């Protein structure tokens, strides 16, 4: 199913680890050509090497979504290598914890510039190429934190994730005439490298708060992104898919 992505070129920003790596793996396993863009080229290359046995080609590119020139350069390199872009998975994001009382302008700007402005930069850079695609797709990695829930220490992160969804809705309207859809995936608690060192008791506590009693896998987010990027999802735009194991369902 969703074989329509086979042979398509998929850009994944922040694709060298965590959810981005899971997204890259899912698309590569379904025969897409995947361009992993990350700030650190060595990390992107390591990820590309790990996924080299996938059905699709995987290549690494250096790009910083906070810098318009950097991401534009990376996108041009992707097009030069693969010949075009069909799907953008705007995934790059950071989540350093800082309480509001201690937060500096620099703390705030770093997160908003990466998560919200970085999404704008990536989408803008890809638009000329998405217009040329048979069916252009943008899939944004947002979060349940901000649009639905809150989490202490993440006010700047929450604001950035809510901002992504506001941007998504207008982008979906503006790009509809070109047949480009713009949607978002909203992950809940997902097992990534960043959580592995938190200890078994912490992970069990997190899992206990989820009705399905387990943390999500990065591939769970990748599978949702795969659907939204498929030809079959062509009549869906400006929408979100929550992938949280039911985490946001309980009233208490």
Task: Produce a short descriptive summary.
The chain is α/β, with parallel strands linked by helices. The protein is 43% helix and 14% strand. Helix 3 (68-82) packs parallel to helix 4 (105-130).
Report the portion of residues in β strands: 5-15%
Q: Give Rg in angstroms.
A: 17 Å
Distance between the termini: 37 Å
Q: In CATH, what is the homologous superfamily?
A: NAD(P)-binding Rossmann-like Domain
Q: What name does CATH use for the topology?
A: Rossmann fold
Shape: globular
Largest sheet data: 7 strands, parallel
The residue fraction in helices comes out at 40-55%
Task: Describe what this molecule looks like in 3D.
The protein has helices at residues 18-29, 41-50, 68-82, 105-130, 155-175, 193-196, 200-208, 218-229, and strands spanning 9-13, 33-38, 58-62, 87-90, 137-141, 181-187, 240-243. The model has no long low-confidence stretch (mean pLDDT 96). Helices cover 43% and strands 14% of the residues.
Task: Offer a few descriptive terms.
single chain, 252 residues, alpha/beta, Rossmann fold, seven-stranded parallel β-sheet, 8 helices, 7 strands, 43% helix, 14% strand
Task: Outline the fold blueprint.
Layout: E1 9-13, H1 18-29, E2 33-38, H2 41-50, E3 58-62, H3 68-82, E4 87-90, H4 105-130, E5 137-141, H5 155-175, E6 181-187, H6 193-196, H7 200-208, H8 218-229, E7 240-243
Parallel strand pairs: 1-2, 1-4, 2-3, 4-5, 5-6, 6-7
Helix pairs in contact: 1-8, 3-4, 4-5
């Amino acid at each position: 199913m969703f074989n329509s992505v086979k042979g398509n070129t998929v850009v994944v920003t922040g694709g060298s680890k965590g959810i981005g790596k899971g997204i890259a793996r899912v698309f590569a396993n379904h025969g897409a050509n995947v361009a992993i863009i990350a700030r650190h080229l060595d990390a992107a290359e390591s990820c590309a090497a790990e996924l080299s046995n996938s059905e699709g080609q995987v290549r690494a590119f250096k790009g910083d979504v906070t810098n318009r020139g950097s991401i534009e350069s990376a996108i041009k390199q992707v097009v030069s290598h693969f010949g075009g872009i069909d799907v953008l998975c705007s995934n790059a994001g950071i989540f350093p914890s800082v309480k509001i009382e201690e937060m500096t302008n620099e703390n705030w700007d770093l997160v908003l510039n990466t998560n919200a402005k970085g999404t704008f930069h990536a989408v803008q850079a890809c638009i000329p190429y998405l217009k040329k695609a048979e069916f252009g797709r943008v899939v944004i990695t947002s979060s349940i934190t901000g649009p639905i829930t809150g989490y202490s220490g993440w006010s700047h992160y929450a604001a950035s994730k809510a901002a992504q969804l506001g941007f998504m809705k207008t982008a979906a309207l503006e790009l509809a005439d070109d047949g480009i859809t713009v949607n978002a995936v909203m992950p809940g608690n997902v097992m990534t490298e960043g959580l592995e060192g938190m200890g078994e008791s912490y992970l069990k506590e997190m899992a206990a708060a989820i009705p399905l009693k387990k943390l999500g896998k990065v591939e769970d987010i990748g599978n949702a992104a795969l659907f939204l990027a498929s030809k079959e999802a062509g009549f869906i735009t400006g929408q979100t898919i929550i992938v949280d194991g039911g985490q946001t369902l309980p009233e208490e």
